[in-house]
Amino acid sequence: MAFKTEFEFELPRGYVDEEGTLHKRGVMRLATAADEILPMRDQRVQQNPSYLTIILLARVVTRLGDVRAIDTRVIEKLFTADLAFLQNLYRQINELDSTMAKVTCPKCEHEHEVDMAFLTATGTGF
C-alpha cells in the first residue's frame, strides 16, 4: 500500500462561486511544517489568531470542483458546515492515530508501551 498524501472529499453543502455554480468535490493534501509555521507571520493571523484556519485550509485544499485557484477568499466564502468539515478532515489526515509504541528495555528485556508524543501534558519535549 502506497503512502497517501492527497485525500478526496465531498463538502456537505458546497462552495458557490461568483457564477452560482456549486462545487462539492475536492482534494486536500497533507500539511507540511511550512503550512503551519509560515501563516504565523501573516498580519491577519497576528490580528486575529482564528484566521490561521482560513490560511491553513487555503494552503492544503488543492482542488475544489472547477475552481481555478483556492485562496483565502474561497475559504472565507464557505458555509460554516463546510468549514467545520474541512477542519475535521485536516485533523484526521494530519494527526497520528496513535503515539503509543511498543518498546523493550535493553537491560531487563521487559516489553511495555510508551507514549511517543513530542509534547506531554507537563509541557516537556522529548
Automatic annotation (TrEMBL):
Protein name: Phage tail assembly protein
Domain of life according to the entry: Bacteria
